[in-house]
Amino acid sequence: MLEIMAALLRSASQLRLISCFVSTGLSSGLVVCRTAFPQYHTRAVGKNIVEASLKHRVSVTNIRSLESMRLLSVVTQQKGTVKEESSPAIRSKQAHQFDWALNKLDNSVRRTGRITKTLLLRIFHDICRTGYPSGNQALLLLRSCGSLLPELHLEERTELAHRIWDKLQELGAVYDASHYNALLKVYLQNEHKFSPTGFLAKMEAANVPPNRVTYQRLIAAYCKEGDIEGASKILSFMKNKDLPITEAVFNSLVTGHARNGDMENAENILSVMRDSGIEPGPDTFLALLNAYAEKGDIDKIKQTLGNVEKTEASVMDRDLMQIVFTLAKAGYPQHVQTIVEHMRHDRGYVPDAMNLCLSLITQGLEDTAFDILRTFPTLHADNQISDSPDIGNFFLRHCVNLNKPVEKIKQYCIALKESNLHSSALQFSLFCALEAKKSDTALQLMKELKKDGLPVRPHYAWPLLAGYQKEKNAQGTLAVLKTMQELGVEPDVETYTNYVLGCFDNFESARTTLRENGCSVNNTEFLASELRTEAVNGRLGNVLTMLSAPDTPPVDLGMFRGSLLLGFKRSKDEELLAKITELLYKDGRYCQTPPGPTEAVGYFLYNLIDSMSDSEVQAKEEHLRQYFHQLKKTNVAISSNIYRGIRNLLDSYHVPELIKDVIILVEDKDNISSSLLSAVSGGKSSVLESKLEELRAENKPVADVLKQLIIQLCAEENVEKALELKMKYESDMSVGGYAALINLCCRHDNAEEAVNLKQQLNRLDSSVPLDTNKYLALVKVLSKHGRLDDAINILKEMKEKDVPIRDSTTTSFFHILNAAAIRGEVETVKLLLESILTLGLAKPTANICSALVTVHLEKGDLPTCLEAIADCYKKYNYMPRLHDVLCSLIEKGDTDLIQKAMDFVSQERGEMTMMYDLFFAFLQTGKYKEARKIIETPGLRARSGRLQWFAEKCIASNQVETLENLVDLTQKLFECDRDQMYFYLLKLFKENNNWRKAEATWTKIQEENIIPRERTLRLLADILKSNGQEVPFDVPEAWFEDVVQSGAVSRAQRKDVDSSVLHPGVTLSEIQRKILSLCKRKSQEACEIVFDADKKGMILSSTVYSSVLRMLLAEGSLEEAWRVKNIAETRIKGFTLNDAANSLLIITQVRRDYLKDAMASLKAMLQADQVPSQLAVTRLVQALGAKGDLEGIQAVEKTMKSLGPSINLSRMLFINNTVLAHLMNSNIDGAVEYVEPLFISEKGISNPQVSSMAYVFKKVIEQNLESALDKLSAMAERLANQFSVYRPVTDLFLQYLDADKVDDAKFLLQRCAAIAEQRDTLVAYIARTAQKAGQAQRIKSLLELITDFPEREIAYDYLMKCYALDNDISSAKDLYEKMKQEKMNPDELFLKRLAVLLKNAGEPVPFIEPPESFKYYADKLKHEKQGKSSSDDD
Fold first, then answer.
1. Which of 20, 896, 1233, 1312 is the most exposed place for a label (fewest CB within 10 A)?
2. Using one digit for the tens of pLDDT, what is the confidence trace for 1026-1054?
3. Residue-wise over 1203-1241: b if at least 16 C-beta within 10 A, else e?
4. Contact 932, 904 (CB under 8 A)
5. Would you say 501 and 533 are in contact if contact means Cβ atoms under 8 Å apart?
């Protein structure tokens, strides 16, 4: 047979083709491979091209070009009945989806060398859902069903391929030869047995002619079965069709002879190849090696490997892994180690080895897979600082998913831990079992954890219990509870409430069933869950019975407070509510934790009111009043602090009459101020007047009541009465009374009286500042009435008294200046703005400077407007109202001034900026022809920021025609995001509810062949749906899209959040999307919607509540956050804050100086198995250090040790703040005694316990702690001079520089010259300092002090960076000259920075500017330094 085969291959025509193939490689398959994927061209032409494409990042442009050519490998289209060609829109959608699918698979394969079944099915379903699968998509899916799925059994892979084939064909996919070849490849990879002749018949029936690749793979199929005769028939077909014989054919023949038991002829194939002019390559040797492996012939394998090393061919690690797989599968695992020893651990070894392990496990060869796992490179175990690297997660997960015996899994876990490959293998295996819902495996693993002394917590069982509860599977639930009981793990209240009781019809049956099956029901947790259930369902009578029963065990109110609040809100039986409250107050079993029942019950009442909306409180006012009186009868009392909180709530709910019914419960009324008491009695001016007269008649102090009366009259806008009262009781007037009167007079435009009152206030107490709004009111009214000097004096007082300036203050300044500008008061605008900016009350912005132009624009004085803009630019670097001035000039037709304006803008900001300014002005004035000429200027690029500004300006002013022309004129603008432009247009149509224009826009989008983003499609669909029109495309599903929702509220609706968001036509889903959208921009509005939704009884999702909570906590709005949290806990059972939200809570509490609360929050997080963020712990420890709380720091440090290094906390955090705490306690000696031994004991160790003390030195210098600084300085010098520990003294030196104490730094350097030798620390300081503007002087000071600094060239580089940040041209030029004088060669990054600086200033560049970007030169320098560092190490 071999002789026949050799003769066939040696025929003249074949040799001619083989020769042609070897010399030119122009076979069709090779053309494809070289054209599309040159990096992956090999002599093995039959390689699966899609695998190469997936492992290489292919640009979308390349893919689209390939798509139009059918991947170049599609040479023949299927003939016969074909589905009608899809429309351009469908083809565009297909291209978009193909790019998405390819990118998904590409990312997966590049990272791991495999794809998951989940990802493949997701892409498959997405493609099916469109209903128009393309040939490319089908090819992509089919090619993914082979070796790229190592976690699936071979049969399952093939079944999946058939399923995809049939479904896509049903949906109209057109198959050609490339698809049949892909299916053949899958069959070969999956070892699927099929009839090659039957396969050819199937292709013939489909009228798809086979090509060379088809024949090659059919030969491979015959050879895998050892059928040389069948392979010979295919070779004859190839000869008849004059097709070339490639290396892949020879490789298959090697396999075929070997499986036919003819190893001699298998080996002789290599000689036949050489005789045919083809040198055997790596794939040929691999085929031979696999043949030996199937026989277990390790000697031949060694011999062949040795022969390969002598040739130009090389066997890669991936090839050796195939031999390992073949050996293991053939039953020769004892030889695997021999092959492993030949592996070189090339780049990509780990992902390839992972895939080998997965394939072995799938084949039931997990022991061999584990041997391979142990060869993985890992971190050195002697590094005690870092965690174990945790290698083997994929191995354990796959073992669990394939239901490997728990005993074996545990053996692997033990071995991994002993090898220091995984720190918590058993816990991770349990996690995998829970994730995969493998109940039996999970429970057995829990038992193994317990045996090993590892903790097993109640929430470990939640995933299993949740599944059983969903299925109402009581037996499964009981099995889990029994296992927990065996392990000594008692279910907590959340477990019972959320995961157990739902399996039973009622509580009694649950109690009975659990007791009968040996589960404990006489504990606190079960009782709390029962109380929760009864309360939520409104059965408060049962709650009272349970709580009053003498045998009820103690249970803290906090365990069922939320549910009880919900029950209270629904009940109308105030007597029953009072009895329960009395019981909670008087029975010690329910308020065991400090500060006792008064606070606990008071807080419960506060939460009750807080959980109700204003409408609920108003509707239940009488019910609540009776409830409070019932509580009074039972002697229930609350503290004054709780009363204040409840009073504020009731006041905000507009039920002040109810306040007096609450005050009767206060036990310490002496602590309540008279203002609060007066509020209870009504707070009206008539009542206060009577009270004032009474006090005066009794000759008692009247100041407090007088102040209240004046404030009340001001609220009633009664100017005459208030001023009359002030005259009558002038000697008893207080600062608060004067402040209220001043504000009242400003509101009534009475400047004269306001000034008089301010003068009287100064005589009373000149040191007391007014609040910011009252100062602004004074400035406004004084400037309006021409009292400019008085207005400026008020501004000066604001600066002197350090009045807080907020964003709203700057806005008020703008309105004051703008009002003066509209009045045409040039001098007023100029002097007020100058004073505001000079005093530092506001920073110059385009908005606040606009008044300088507005004052002339209102008069129509355009030449002066231009002068004002130029002057403003020179002073403040802003060009306010340039657009408006240009529009006025264009309307006036003053070409000279337009040219002058454009010359100025072009000179200062560049020609492109000038072009855009002119373009927008022409658009604004309706000069569309002129605008087109501007935008079509060659070389003009899209500037998304400028386009967005003008588009949003059009939307805000409802300029439909202008925006339409903007979108139309930018169609051919280079790099213009057309989808974004149409999105702006659709937003405006949404505002105007114009569905016809929106529909026409959809047509234009298709005409331009744009692939719209999902948000654009959703916005368009929303417009059409809301007007009852059919949507002509599939609406993509998404949770929310920020920008879409920003256009969802019309202009008329924005005035009222409640009407715009919560009107009957809006669904709950839309409300939730709106809230999530607002969380990024408008926190207050988002918060209000949540509150309003709660008032209407709506239950939002936990995601919405969590997002709002995170937003509020990030802003520091603690009170609002608590309110949202209470709503969430009431509405959603078991709602808890996640790690991120709790971390933000700690940060907010620290910011508010609630350190005890922050400590409690941290403790609660850890008890709930949550991990705080690094920032939260850092802020807490720093705050404790600043307070001198040593015990608190030690407690946090001890707590953090239990987490290990998982949040990467520096130990210096605790050391530095412990030192600082000693200092705050005036224990300087204690601080020194604590920290100095840490440096000394660690002397000479490469990883010292203590590194930088910069934080301590910084705080000591900032707070002027002179005595502490002296002793710490002496310690630092002592460590340097006696122990050669230089870091502390270097830190002190650098902190002196940061604090601008150059003389102190100089003297320290003189005393300890070794500071100058600390190269790494000093260079790091320079690099860090150069990151911020205004820091050049500090680097210069360092260089002046250390004249012989060894890294002067590096320092000059960073100094140039500082000058670039500061835009300091003269200093940059001086530095360049200095480097030339010192004969230093500046690097390219230095020259690039200087060149850009000079060009921006319009100055000539005295050298050739480096052409590349900053990033390019920065990366280049980085690589050069790394190369130098590695060569130094060598």
1. 896
2. 888 888 776 765 433 333 333 333 333 33
3. eeeebebeebbbbbbbbbbbbbeebbebbbebbbeebee
4. no
5. yes
